[in-house]
Amino acid sequence: FGLDMMGSCAIAASALRRVLNRLGHEAVFVVGFYDGMHHSWVELGDEVLDITATQFGDFPEVHVAPARPPYEHTLRGPRALTHVNGWWDRIAPAAWERETRAVVLGALATL
Question: pLDDT tens-digit profile of 69-88?
Fold first, then answer.
């Protein structure tokens, strides 16, 4: 992924959720705000996994943070996915899922 993921957060978070769920984790897709800006991310338990946080500044490729402000959700789970329904099939190439899987597996290896 490039460093500036602005505008790609919903697609990337959707791909991340798919990969994590296929690996047996209970990941939740979230739509909301990061520091007042529209954003999408994944929650795993009480932590945020954000693979597009680089658009907000100097963050690692996989930003892990507590699920609290500056992350503020408005929609979680199926309602959030319905909100962005269809984006995955129309916009994101299959390569994104492969790249996201590699990043996720690398991140999980550090936990």
Answer: 999 999 999 888 887 765 55
